[in-house]
Amino acid sequence: MKKHLYIETVGCQMNLLDSELVVASLRRRGYKLVDRAQKADVILFNTCSVREHAEEKIYSALGRLKHIKRQNPQTIIGVLGCMAQNHQANVFQRAPYVDLVVGPGQLHQIPGLLDEVAEGTAQRLEVSLDRKGFAKNEIEQSFEAYDPLRTPEMRPSPYQAFVRIQIGCDKFCTYCIVPKVRGPEQCRPPKAIIAEVRQLASEGCREITLLGQTVNSYQHQNGSITTRLSDLLLQLSDIDGIERLKFVTSYPCDMTDDLLQAVGSLRKCSHYLHVPAQSGSNDILKRMKRGYTVEQYREMLSRIRHYVPDATITSDFIVGFSGETEADFVLTKALVEECRFKNSFIFKYSERPGTKGAMHHVDDVPERVKKQRNNELLDIQNTISYEDNQVRVGKQYEVLIEGPSKNADKHNSSGPLVQLAGRTMWDHIVVFEGNPRLIGEILPVTIYEANAFTLFGEVQTEHVGPEVYQLSS
Ligand code: 5AD
Ligand code: SF4
């Protein structure tokens, strides 16, 4: 009999990829994915620890499972990923009916661990070593990257894929839990990455997003041969079938000229860069140990504009970090206004036990002030995003059609048409009406309207042949 699997994922693209790979490995062993925890034999949560709120949400979700476990004690409940590594056995204390706690470095063990628990083994905890108190190579080995071969039908979209090129982080920004829970920075050999992308291309994948916490710090040494991200992009560009290459997240100090040159000159490279600034105040950046000043960030932006004049740039900001004064916040607002990011992800500072930030600085900005600053910065960013998108009205963009839009069900389309969504080479989301057969195609779309987050357009199908034209007209 098939076992039923339910999985919930929170957090970043790295987690989405991890979940995809865990699901793939379990499907290969006969598990069937279901959409409700109530129907499942195995319930997994792939978790995030970046902010306290994300962890608390998982504990609430686990709380709601208590009665499922009471009704059916055979149900296996697992907590995976960053919170598993962060809280370790404490998860069992807060939720004693959890069977498995598995860190991001042990995901490959999940099928075996599930078998053991099903056979009656007690609770299992599998996590990596602490970053202190062990030899460097032991720690690195304990954070094992999980990149098994995947099959196309298991990917969320056949036309796009995330490909991990780096795990962990060595930057140790003082607010951030990632270096603790994801371990030391380790870069995957280019050979393995190229093989994976070739395989994805042969399966019809057209867009690859390379993942790393500081993806542009990627560097792999093999004897005398050094491969940087720019070298990797060049090699990946040669793979037939791949049309678009993106990479996230970039670290401002590692935005080197060779990389920007590659982005500017390689036809397949998306002109989109996510380079979090975090704050516009030098005092705060220093306390965050970000390793750059506002002036240096600005200089980096001007180099981006030099090599990739039409680049869209997005950023992250933390508001209400320890000691952030009104004057610091004014500087952050000024930076957002000056840089005109395509969009910014704005977060209220959440103190993370175990970080240098929590150890050395008091979380002294009241929640009310954090909220106020968050809203204010968001308003500024949204106005900029809206204004920039208005300039795009009337223009035509090549759009990789990803699938039905989020509102496809609610949208009143006529005949065989549905509301579709896709992205430009600059990472703008474009929504338009079209035949679902267009999904996976790259087609020109003319924009007729825009808000701060979305461009609305009309697909131009004339040049792709009468068949498609007829279907979508
Ligand atoms: N509190 C709030 N935001 C945080 N981020 C990372 N750590 C914290 C924290 N402790 C934000 C940063 C980062 C993004 C992924 O999450 O802006 O770039
Ligand atoms: Fe966290 Fe800083 Fe590493 Fe980004 S660079 S993952 S913010 S420690």
CATH top level class name of the largest domain: Alpha Beta
Spatial separation of the terminal alpha carbons: 47 Å
CATH architecture of the largest domain: 3-Layer(aba) Sandwich
What is the spatial order of strands in the main beta sheet? Answer: 2-1-3-4-5-6
Percent in helix: 25-40%
Please tell me the overall pLDDT.
Answer: 94
Please summarize the sheet with the most strands: 6 strands, parallel
Uncertain residue segments: 464-473
Q: How would you sum up the global shape?
A: globular
- The fold-level CATH name of the largest domain is Rossmann fold
Structural domain count? 4
Which superfamily, in CATH terms, is the homologous superfamily of the largest domain?
Methylthiotransferase, N-terminal domain
Total number of helices? 17
SSE class: alpha/beta
**Proportion of strand residues:** 15-25%
What does this structure look like?
This protein is of the alpha/beta class and 473 residues long. It folds into 4 domains: 137 residues, 3-Layer(aba) Sandwich (Rossmann fold); 116 residues, Transcription Regulator spoIIAA; 119 residues, 2-Layer Sandwich (Transcription Regulator spoIIAA), CATH 3.30.750; 74 residues, no CATH class. Helices cover 36% and strands 22% of the residues. The protein has a 6-stranded parallel beta sheet, sandwiched between helices. Strands 17-18-19-21-20 form a 5-stranded mixed beta barrel. The protein has a 3-stranded parallel beta sheet with strand order 7-10-13, with helices on both faces. The protein is globular, with a radius of gyration of 23 Å. The N and C termini lie far apart (47 Å). 5'-deoxyadenosine binds next to strand 15.
